[in-house]
Specification:
single chain, mainly beta, Lipocalin, 1 helix, eight-stranded antiparallel beta barrel, two-stranded antiparallel ribbon
Length: 151
């Protein structure tokens, strides 16, 4: 018996998006599909979709040629700036990255973020659907899924 997909229609930041069940029956991503800029717009937790909780927080993932990933996040009001450069790869819908360069202008609090720690290696399940990139973080019993939109 096949699994049926039931789209869930959500009102989200002034537009409508259709969310299919996550991480099921998707073709494996290639590094080339990620090339471009992706901005954080919200997250999914306990099957609920939320817009980003802090409108002052700007997170940008820029996937570039030669498997380079530039991650930048800022909080303008607090004058926080964080930026790292990583080597990345995708295999079996898993994004792996290793941070190899940090911006010397990074704010002190950046060191708390795993994506801003020199030499740090991470691996997270990912999916692209309708110009949305979803990064699945395991938080123990529940998952948190970051949603980024292609810019």
């Amino acid at each position: 018996m096949k699994n049926k997909k039931f789209p869930l229609i959500l009102r989200f930041m002034g537009f409508i998006m259709y969310l299919q069940p996550l991480f099921t029956q998707a073709a494996d991503l290639t590094n080339q599909e990620l090339i471009g800029e992706w901005n954080y717009i919200g997250y999914i937790y306990l099957d609920q979709t939320y817009i980003k909780p802090n409108p002052d927080l700007n997170v940008n993932f820029q996937f570039m040629d030669q498997n380079r990933l530039l991650i930048t996040w800022t909080r303008t009001l607090d004058k926080v700036f964080c930026q790292s450069l990583s080597h990345y790869n995708t295999e079996n819908d898993i994004l792996t990255q290793e941070v190899y360069l940090l911006n010397e202008a990074n704010s002190f609090e950046c060191s708390k973020d795993p994506d801003m720690q020199l030499g740090r290696k991470t691996a997270v399940p990912i999916q692209i659907e309708n110009n949305y990139l979803k990064l699945k973080l395991n938080l123990g019993e529940n998952d948190l899924i970051y949603i980024l939109q292609k810019f």
